[in-house]
Automatic annotation (TrEMBL):
Protein name: Zinc carboxypeptidase
MF term (GO), any: zinc ion binding
A Pfam family it matches: Peptidase_M14
Signal peptide: 1-31
A single GO cellular-component term on record: extracellular space
Organism: Pseudokineococcus lusitanus
Length: 453
């Protein structure tokens, strides 16, 4: 791809009352160059390491918080076209360090790209925006790839020597463009692609009625994050439909199939995929368990499926399954955020996502069964509840966590982290949103039998 335009955006919070809640975009060309000196997590503005005027409003738990879907501005986020320009630019300025490749296409034909950087033996796969209304992860991944591919610091060099990062930002571009959770695919299209499914009923994760403010009636789609199967060579069989949240998925969505293909390719190349990170958002109104006056900035987790030693269906995966390593990775994320919170307290509002999950149809569940250390980020607020509010801060928080993870793996320090520290991360407190909230996250968990309070 040819370099077209520099679109890097720098954001500043403005201290004008409620206007401070919205980040303001500066024009292309005025963005500060990435810092080449600091060993701290890089940022487009070093001031992001310090508390911002809008942090207090972000963290102050207000009873007016609501997950009721509404239309809010989202143009600050990187859309599909902008992502193409950004990845093109990063590939160019990295002088060959970053390799951008189209790895698949969405159901509506949009490109799905991977950005690969580093030559190390440990592979870290990261994906974002599998739910198209969960957008911060994409911006954080673009920042991470750019820094790793362009920084001249010893730290970045070490990352490049020890790690191979493969990022697939915006892996569900159709859902992202529609700004909704599901992809854009009808059951009839699935059947056309897989003729053996003629006569089968749609999978349980097929949306064809309105939900969270989105009209799936006229444009149905699937929760792509229930379409994975730990058997990476699985072919859809009619008797496996409609399935359920306790069962594996089918790879009927081109988006999940694309990520699966990348994962298999990395397995073939490296033997195993050391670490897998998936970046999500949760409801906007969860509070800290020990301080109901403070909102949760993000929740993390390293547990997605039942222990294979306790479940006969998973027996073949028992050997590679390593929950301790997933816990250590999460500890690295949390330690980095707690350290950053010394200067910017809002970054320390980290909780543990509900545990006891058994969701083999999620990317995290399927890849964890295949032996990867797995990390979930659940960033505060989806677009239907927060829009682009706090984008810069939440991108920063995500970035800091990812930076801590990458550094701990690159240095090998992750092996020394105490998994018990994971269990000591405070559990997510309750949501104080309005009673009629449409919290998809909680609904999904309840359907999986998890007590979410
Ligand atoms: Zn999600």
């Amino acid at each position: 791809m040819r370099l077209r335009a520099r679109t890097t955006r720098s954001t500043v919070a403005v201290g004008l009352g409620t206007a401070a809640l919205l980040a303001v975009t500066t024009l292309p060309g005025s963005a500060a160059p990435p810092s080449a000196s600091a060993d701290a997590p890089p940022a487009w503005s070093s001031s992001l390491a310090a508390a911002q005027p809008s942090d207090a409003a972000f963290a102050a738990a207000a009873p007016t918080c609501s997950d009721t879907p509404r239309k809010l501005p989202i143009n600050e986020f990187t859309d599909h076209r902008e992502l193409a320009v950004e990845l093109d630019r990063i590939e160019e300025v990295s002088g060959g360090a970053v390799d951008v490749e189209q790895v698949g296409r969405s159901n509506r034909g949009r490109e799905i790209w991977s950005a690969r950087v580093g030559t190390g033996e440990k592979v870290v796969l990261m994906t974002s925006e599998i739910h198209g209304n969960e957008k911060v992860g994409t911006d954080a991944l673009v920042d991470l790839v750019e820094w790793m591919g362009t920084s001249t610091t010893p730290k970045a060099q070490r990352w490049r020597d020890e790690l191979t990062l493969v990022a697939i930002p915006k892996m569900n571009p159709d859902g992202a463009e529609l700004d909704r959770r599901g992809n854009d695919q009808t059951w009839a299209e699935v059947q056309a692609r897989h003729p053996q499914l003629r006569g089968a009923e749609p999978s349980w994760n097929y949306y064809d009625t309105p939900r969270t403010g989105d009209d799936y009636g006229s444009a149905p789609g699937f929760d792509t994050n229930r379409d994975y199967n730990p058997d990476l060579s699985y072919v859809p069989q009619p008797e496996d439909f409609p399935g359920s949240s306790e069962e594996a998925g089918w790879y009927v969505t081109p988006e999940a199939s694309t990520v699966r293909d990348v994962y298999r390719g990395l397995q073939a190349e490296f033997g195993e995929v050391d670490t897998y990170v998936d970046l999500h958002h949760q409801g906007a109104c969860y509070v800290m368990p020990d301080d109901p006056e403070q909102f949760v900035t993000l929740s993390i987790s390293g547990q997605f499926v039942a222990d294979p030693s306790t479940k006969p269906e998973y027996a073949e995966y028992a050997e590679g399954y390593d929950l301790e390593y997933s816990k250590q990775l999460n500890v690295a994320v949390n330690q980095a955020l707690q350290k950053a919170a010394e200067r910017r307290p809002v970054l320390g509002n980290v909780t543990l996502y509900p545990q006891g999950l058994d969701l083999p149809g999620t990317g995290l569940g399927s890849f964890q069964l295949n032996g990867s250390g797995a990390v979930l980020f659940e960033i505060r607020g989806q677009t239907q509840s927060l829009g682009q509010q706090y984008r810069a801060m939440l991108t920063r928080a995500t970035y800091v966590g990812l930076d801590g993870l990458m550094t701990s793996v690159a240095t090998g320090r992750v092996a020394d982290l105490d998994p018990a520290e994971y269990d000591a991360i405070p559990p997510r407190g309750p949501s104080i949103g309005s009673a009629e909230q449409a919290d998809e996250d909680a609904r999904v968990l309840r359907s999986a039998g998890v007590d979410v309070g």
